[in-house]
Amino acid sequence: MAVDWQELRRGLARARPFLLSHHLPAEYDRCYAPVVWGRTIRVCARCVGIYPGILVGLWAAFAAPESLGHVLLVAVLPLPALLDWSLDALTPWEGSNPGRTGTGFLLGYGYGLGLVHLFVRGTLAVVVVGVGYGVLAAVLLSYHDSQRE
Q: Has residue 29 been placed in a domain?
């Protein structure tokens, strides 16, 4: 099977804007837009918080006092991000990028803790939390999409 290098380059060029931000132009207000070497780079505000939060969550699960790495936090820490997104998507209220970054940090912290509790400690309650959030997010997305039609 031969590789179509021209098609690959076209595909990569079309995907480039989504490398650091998964938002369409209508949602660029949810991104930071630093200028690097004369080019505007769009970076998702919530993701800016998520990745450092994951690192801190991993650290907390292994090195911090038990209260900072407790499995209950896996269930609680994603709530602010879900609430922020829900209010922004379903009501006239508009969030802010610093708020998105902060709630993203908490979400990432929960992800980091969850990874350790699930894969290192075998705490299956993390799966239940994940399924619960997945179902809740699916219901909210379905409602959101039904309102747009």
A: no
In order along its 149 residues, the chain shows pLDDT tens digits of: 788 899 989 998 888 878 778 888 889 999 999 999 998 889 999 999 999 999 999 999 999 888 888 999 999 999 999 999 999 988 998 899 999 999 999 999 999 999 999 999 999 999 999 999 999 999 999 988 888 76
Task: Give bridge partners of residue 44 from the DSSP assignment.
Answer: 31
Amino acid 57 reads G
Find out whether 39 and 93 touch, Cβ atoms under 8 Å. Answer: no
Taking the model in full, what pTM does it have?
A: 0.87
Asked if 56 and 116 count as a contact pair (C-beta separation under 8 A), the reply is no
Is the residue at 20 inside a domain? no
Question: What residue numbers bound the domain in which 126 lies?
Answer: 45-148
The count of domains in the chain is 1
**Is 92 a member of any domain?**
yes
Q: In the Cβ-directed half-sphere of 42, how many Cα atoms lie within 13 Å? A: 17
